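Re-running Mevalonate kinase to confirm reproducibility after the cluster update. Everything else is unchanged from the original entry.
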Amino acid sequence: MTNPLFYAKILLFGEYGIIEDSQGLTVPYSFYKGTLKFSATDSDFEKKSNEHLRLYAEYLSALTLPEGYQLDLDAFLKDIDNGLFFDSNIPQGYGVGSSGALVAAIFEKYSLKKYNPDTISKVELKDLKKVFGLLESYFHGTSSGIDPLICYMNLPILIENRESVDKVSIPASLEDQKGAIFLIDSGMVGETGPMVQIFFEKMKTEGFRKTLKEEFIRYNNACIDAFLKKEMNPFFKNLKHLSVWAYEHFKPMIPESIYKIWKKGIDSNAYYLKLCGSGGGGYILGFTRDYEKAEKMLHGFNKEVIYRF
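Result of re-run:
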C-alpha cells in the first residue's frame, strides 16, 4: 500500500459508558482522513506536523511495546529527517479521532509485523487495542486504544466490554431513505481531558454511579442491539431515553449552543441528540426518522449526514 488513507471514526454509542464496561459501536467516517506524506513545500502546517512527529518519536523511543508489536523507529526518524508529516483534514477536538488516525498511520507504516485488517482474529484485535492504547496515551494521558484501532481497521467495531472488541456488520446506508444519522457542528472545540475529569468527579457520587449503570448503560446497549438488528421502533424508544438521560446528567458536556435544540428534539420527537465522543464542543450526533423535518428545525446549524436508513 502506498500512502494508505486513514479515516476518522465516529462513536455512535458508548461515550463514557465504555469506561464503565458498557457496549460501544463505532464506525469509520471517510469524509475526514489523514495520510503520512513527505513535504515538498515546507509550509507552516507541514513544518509543525513534522516537529510534532519528532516529539512523538522521542516518546516512542522510551516506550516498551509487547513482543511482536515493535516499530521500526530508525526508519521513522530517518523519514522525519526527510520531511515526513501527517497530511490530515480531521478536525482536532471534535471527537472524530484525529490522534487515532495518526497513530494508525504510523503503526501501519512502521510496524515490523504486518497485519491484514480483514483477517485479524478477535484475540489479535484485543492485543492490538492494548498496543494502540500505549501508542495513543502520548496524546490523551491515557487511552483505551479504541480510536486508533477503528482508524486502523477501517471497519465498524462492536466494543463488547472493556476488554473485548469484535468486527461487526452494520445495516447498509440507503441514500433514498428519510431517516438519518447526522452530525451537528457545535461551533467550538472540545477538550477530552477536562470532560473526562468531570465524568470521574460525577462517578464519586453513588447516585450518579447507580443511574449510569442501571439506566444509561441499559439504554445504550439496547440502542446498539436494535440498530444492528435494524429494529427501528425499539431503537428510537431507547434513543429517546438515552437523550433525556444525557440532558439531565451530562449537561456540563453539552455545549451551550446546543442546550435548546437538544431539548427541542426531545419535546418534539422530531430528532434526538447525543454526545459524539467526550463532548464539551466538537460534533453532536443527531438521529431522526425524517431528516427533512429535522433539518428545518435545526436551521442555522452546520450539519453533515453520515448514514441513511
